[in-house]
Structure formats: C-alpha cells, structure tokens
Design a protein that fits this description.
This protein is an alpha/beta fold. It is about 35% helix and about 25% strand. Helix 1 links the parallel strand 1 and strand 2. The longest helix has 29 residues. The chain starts with a strand and ends with a helix.
Length: about 240
C-alpha cells in the first residue's frame, strides 16, 4: 500500500496546516476530504459518504466548531465518521485524532464527550508520560469540550484542565492543535463568530504575538510528534 494519509477536514476553517506539512516531509501522500462546506457552516447537518478506510495508512480527523454530542450531527455525518473510525480500527488503519477528532475517537471507543468546566484557548503546557511521542509543548488549545477515556485507553498527557492525549491500539487522540501556525490562527480569529476570545478575556494581540514567537519551535515539535506517531503507531 502507498503511504497515504487522509486528512478529514470537518470544518472548512480547520485544515491540515503544519500536520500536513509534517506528514508530507515524512514521505506520505497527503489527501484531504472535506465534510461541511462553507455554505453549510450555519446548518452543518450534512449527509456525507466517507472514503473507505482501507485505502489509507493513516487517517487524521481534524477539528471543528461543533460538539461531538450534537444530536442532529450524530444522526448525520458525526455518526458516519464514528463508523469510519470503527472501520479503521478493525482494519488496522492508524488514526491521529486532533481536538474534535480526538473527541470523536473517545466517543467511537466507549468514552464520553461533555462540556468542559475549564475551556482552554491559547498556548498551554501539559504533562506527558511519553515525550518521544507527545512532546511537552507548549501546544495551542481552543476547546470548550473534553473527553473521558475510553475503556482500555492509556492516557499519556494531561494538564489540570483536561486529558490531553491517549493511546488505544493504533489510535492516538490529541486534545490540542498541533496543526496551528500564525496564518491559521488569523483565520480562526477572523471566523470567531461566538466571540470566544472575548468571552475568555484573551488579549488578541498578545495571542498573535505569542504564536509568531512560538511558530518555529511549534513546527519542530509537530515534526517530532509525527515522526513518533509513524514509528510507534502508524508506521506499518
């Protein structure tokens, strides 16, 4: 099988970013599959037929602005994407879930996803039991939900606000956003319809400056994470 990775772009404002770059630099053919188009952002319960998991070595479900537990979405594409992740697990295809994608992995394998009492937005440190796989950061966060671990999962990273990474078979779930660089942050700020930055009393200018300062080191950490993932989880 060719070394192909499928990035599932659930939200049009959440592309592969630095993760796509890192997988390409490690010899993977990068493909993307878009779920909710721009003209359905306000009505996202679209019907989707996902590609066959067996065609890929790695699948990367990315972030989204909507909750995994939204009933209308569970009846449409979120339910279908969870079935895709089940198929990937059964077929031995590696999955790297990012934020919403990590929450999908938790839900797919018997965990739960709920509203968090401690949302995170900005660059955050975390504790890691496996720095060769998940370097300690800082990593960028933008989430209002969090998971509980699925049965059989091993948590490998956390901070006081939430579980930050777990391993389950050939699945690695991340709560943070390794894909983010300054350009992507500016897109997210421009699309902050719910005024999350204002709600959490974040200084927008400081956030942009901090992201620019960390961009080179973040790119290095992303490449370390992807190399570790390929070697330990998705390298067959």
């Amino acid at each position: 099988m060719a070394r192909k990775v499928l990035f599932i772009v659930n939200d049009p404002v959440a592309p592969a970013g630095l993760l796509g770059e890192a997988f390409a630099d490690n010899g993977f053919d990068v493909e993307t599959f878009e779920v909710v188009p721009w003209d359905r952002v306000d009505d996202p319960a679209v019907e989707v037929t996902f590609p066959d998991a067996a065609g890929y070595r790695v699948i990367v479900p990315l972030g989204a602005r909507w909750p995994v537990y939204d009933d209308a979405l569970r009846r449409s594409w979120v339910g279908a994407e969870i079935r895709l992740l089940h198929d990937a697990h059964r077929q031995g295809v590696a999955v790297l879930g990012v934020c919403f994608g990590g929450q999908l992995l938790a839900a797919a394998h018997g965990g739960s996803v709920t509203r968090s009492t401690a949302p995170e937005l900005g660059w955050c440190d975390l504790d890691t039991d496996d720095p060769a796989l998940v370097p300690p950061g800082p990593w960028f966060q933008w989430h209002f939900d969090r998971w509980t671990l699925p049965p059989g999962a091993t948590e490998i990273s956390r901070n006081p606000q939430a579980s930050q990474a777990f391993l389950l078979g050939r699945n690695l779930a991340l709560q943070f956003h390794p894909e983010l660089d300054r350009a992507l942050l500016l897109r997210w700020i421009a699309d902050d319809r719910d005024r999350d930055i204002e709600t959490l009393d974040i200084d927008e200018g400081e956030l942009i400056t901090r992201t620019a300062e960390l961009e080179d080191s973040a790119r290095h950490r992303v490449h370390r994470l992807v190399r570790g993932f390929i070697a330990r989880v998705g390298g067959r």
